[in-house]
Amino acid sequence: MITYHPRAKTNIHIRRLIKESHESHYVLAQRFNLNPKTILKWKHRSNLQDKPYGAKIHHFTLNEWEQKIVVKVRKHLKHNLDDLVLILKPYIPKINRGSCYRVLVKHQINKLPLPFKDQGKGKFSYYLPGFLHLDLAYLPLLSKSYKRRYLQAAVDRVTKIVFLMVVNGKTQKEAIRFLQFVIKFYSYHIHRILTDNGKEYGKDFTKECQRYGIKHKKTKVKHPWTNGMAEITIQQIKKATIWQTFYQSYQQMEQDLTLWQNDYNLTRKLKSLKYLTPYQKMVEYYQSLTLKKQKSRFKKKPRELLITTPLYRGT
Fold it and tell me: Which of 256, 251, 254 is nearest to 311 (CA)?
C-alpha cells in the first residue's frame, strides 16, 4: 500500500511521467501545475515514494526506567491518564499528561479495555463489589489540640463508594475499630481488603479480617502506587476540605468530611462509572442480580446507604 504525504500534489503515475520525460522542468511544471523545484526533486529521486515525515528520532522526557514504571502501573491499575499522572507525580516529579501519554502510545496501551466486565455477559470479570482499598492520612494539628488525629478512608474498587472515619491514632486498635464501622456501613459483604504496609495494618488487623471472612492483602514493598485508588481519594478529600479551609476544631472538620463523603457517594457522577454516581452503580449491580444472589451478597438493601452515617469521633 502506497502512503502519500498529507500535502502531496502528485501521485506515483505523475512522478513516473516526470522522471521519464525529456522535456525541460519549466515545461513540465506548467503542464502539471507544479513548482519547478518539485519537478527537479522527482527527476533526481531514485524512489518515487514519499519519505517518512515527522521527527526521525523521537525524544522522550522520561528515561527507560521511568517509562517501565508508567507501563507497569498502567497495566496493573488500569487508571485513566489524569489519575495515572496524579499517582506517579510524587515518584516521578517531571511527569505530566503529555509525557505520560507519549509513553502509553509508544507501548500501545493508550486505550483501555472495558473494565470489570466480560464481553456479552454483563458480569464483573475481575472482582465483585466488596474489594476495598484502605489508607490512612494525617490530619493537621489544630492550635487548641494537643493530639493529632488521623483520617481512615475506604473505597470500593468497583462501585467507588467511600467511607471516612476520623481516628485518634495510627494503631492497629484504631484500624480494627475502623474495620468494624466499614463492615456496618457497606450494604454488601466485604471479601477483600488491600492496604499498604503500615504498622496499623499488622497481624492483629489481619486476624480481625479473617474473623469476618475477609482476605487481607498488602501492597509490595516500595510499590505504594498499587494502592493508588485510596491515595487518589485522599488527595481529592484534602483538596476539597483541609487544604481550603482553616478549621478551628476537629468537630468542624468532621462535619465537612461527612458532607464530602455523602456528596461523593450520592451525587458525584464519575467518568469511570459511565457517569453514574457510586450509589447508582451499587443499585445497578443489585438490580442485575437474581433474588437468591441479592440475599447472599447483600446484607441490607442499597437504599439504607441514604441514611447518613456520621464520622466516628475518637475519645
Answer: 254
Which run of H or E residues covers position 136? Answer: strand 131-138
Q: What is the CA radius of gyration of the chain?
A: 29
Per-residue cell: 86: 496524579
CB-neighbour burial class of residue 54 (10 A; exposed 0-12, middle 13-18, buried 19+): exposed
Order the strands of the 131-138 sheet from edge to edge: 162-167, 150-156, 131-138, 192-195, 215-218
User: What pLDDT is attached to residue 312?
Assistant: 44
Cell of 193: 481488603
Say if residues 50 and 3 touch (Cβ distance below 8 Å).
yes
pLDDT tens-digit series, residues 142-189: 877 778 899 999 999 999 999 999 999 999 999 999 999 999 999 999
Closest among 92, 73, 112, 75 to 271, alpha carbons compared: 112
Residue 65: its H or E element: helix 64-77
Sequence-separated (6 or more) residues with CB below 8 Å from residue 80? 112, 271, 272
The phi and psi torsions of 71 (rounded to 5 degrees) equal: -65, -45
Name the pTM for this structure.
0.59
CATH hierarchy code of domain 131-306: 3.30.420.10
